[in-house]
Design brief:
Helix content: 40-55%
CATH architecture of the largest domain: 3-Layer(aba) Sandwich
Structural class: alpha/beta
Strand content: 5-15%
Shape: globular
Largest sheet: 4 strands, parallel
Number of domains: 2
Radius of gyration: 16 Å
CATH topology of the largest domain: Rossmann fold
CATH class of the largest domain: Alpha Beta
Length: 161
């Protein structure tokens, strides 16, 4: 396809992992993320992972057409509201910015209520490895338990309740 439009919230490995897999198999793929996540951190992670564009689902239909056209032409598209936040030098540091990509993926899955065993299966890791990631996540974010982990994700706008 000229442009692949995909979401980040999907079952299984999740959208960022799927994006990485797609680009590993087809490095020239042009991927536009259309997501309900309207925060700059998620957009930034998707763009760093190789997405050519990031569009919020609440955007007008005309904006979707514009985004697809720009990505198809080899340009980058960023939702205007998110682009404004990304340009701000004084934007507050997001709590998950301290996490590695793998820790961030694990963080999102756990925050959505998946068990350590389910996350291990999703990412083809051992439960001990996921436990190690969880330990590091808790240390980096200064949280004590799974409820605080979920609340950190909700406060950051990464998941909805």
């Amino acid at each position: 396809p000229d442009v692949l439009v995909m979401d980040l919230s999907m079952p299984g490995c999740g959208g960022l992992s799927a994006l990485e897999r797609i680009l590993a198999r087809e490095p020239g793929a042009r991927v536009l993320i259309a997501s309900a996540h309207a925060d700059a951190l998620t957009a930034e992670r998707a763009l760093k992972a190789g997405a050519a564009g990031y569009l919020c689902k609440r955007s007008a239909p005309d904006e979707l057409l514009r985004a697809v056209g720009l990505v198809a032409a080899g340009q980058t598209y960023i939702d205007p509201e998110i682009a404004a936040v990304l340009r701000r030098a004084d934007r507050p540091e997001h709590p998950a910015e301290a996490l590695t990509d793998k820790e961030f993926h694990v963080f999102l899955q756990l925050a959505q209520g998946h068990s350590v065993a389910e996350v291990a299966d999703t990412f083809h890791l051992s439960p001990n490895t996921v436990g190690t990631h969880l330990y590091r996540i808790k240390q980096k974010l200064g949280i004590q338990n799974m409820a605080e982990l979920a609340m950190a994700a909700v406060r950051a706008g990464l998941i909805e309740v």
